[in-house]
């Protein structure tokens, strides 16, 4: 029997701020800008209140309009660069403000480019407070392209590189320093579609990766034990765990509502176990939910699944003999 986690730990009691980021400026197709509302329709806020969390919905951030442009040689051959920078500045400021106020920011995306802003803000907060930062990146993709290697020019494919200090200064230095994230502070799980040059970068940067082959071989339990091992024994008051959850991490059979599906992802129970083991750490300090695309969803089923999984991050459990939940 594994030792029981201390469920009185901080994260269960940290008040939550929902922050809508209605943009798909970094994605190849339109629709993720409607993600925040789909999560609200699926009752994300009430689902967390039901678990005893204090939840405040701060509404949607404002940002530039979705004027989609072609790749632009002046901006590293990326698409919609200026707009993505403006959105990320807004995200950075909002997240930093909520953390400073002692609240847990939960981003309702929006495409994955927003993670540059959110994680930069978390990194800045951790530097200000002397906390140790650890990021779990759940995704079918590595999002480790640079402007030079990106096959698409889509900015949602480059956030991990930007956070690692590779990319345009406007995105690498949002926190005021770079890199926002050292390789020891990042672990990627669920990868199954990684471009050749991304593989090279992951290797040279020595990023911890549990790809789908690892999950197949180890199972989700052992994968998560290993992914969370660097946090063993950490003092909750000195440690900040950030979860960046790309909906395409999930198998498209259960989560069709996202723009870049890749088959062969975690199933419902594997995803639940993953969330429950993250919850058990008691260290969760901030979350991105990204790439939900209601235009591609079926009767909001992907949004409802995400709400179900987020409930597991906050203590909903299938453990029968644990009366604390
Ligand atoms: N956040 C995502 N869904 N990213 C998909 C990235 C796909 C591809 N690697 C690219 O750079 O364009
Ligand atoms: Mn992805
Ligand atoms: Mn992603």
From TrEMBL:
Cofactor, free-text remark: Binds 2 manganese ions per subunit.
Functional pathway: Nitrogen metabolism; urea cycle; L-ornithine and urea from L-arginine: step 1/1
A cellular-component GO term for this protein: cytoplasm
Single GO biological process annotation from the record: arginine metabolic process
PROSITE patterns: ARGINASE_1, ARGINASE_2
Reactions catalysed: L-arginine + H2O = urea + L-ornithine
Residues annotated as binding Mn(2+): 112, 139, 141, 143, 246, 248
Entry EC no(s): 3.5.3.1
Alphabetical keyword list: Arginine metabolism, Hydrolase, Manganese, Metal-binding
KW Phosphoprotein (keyword) present: no
Cofactor or coenzyme needed: Mn(2+)
GO MF entries: arginase activity; manganese ion binding
Family label: Belongs to the arginase family.
Protein name as it appears in the record: Arginase
Source species: Comamonas koreensis
Gene designation per UniProt: rocF
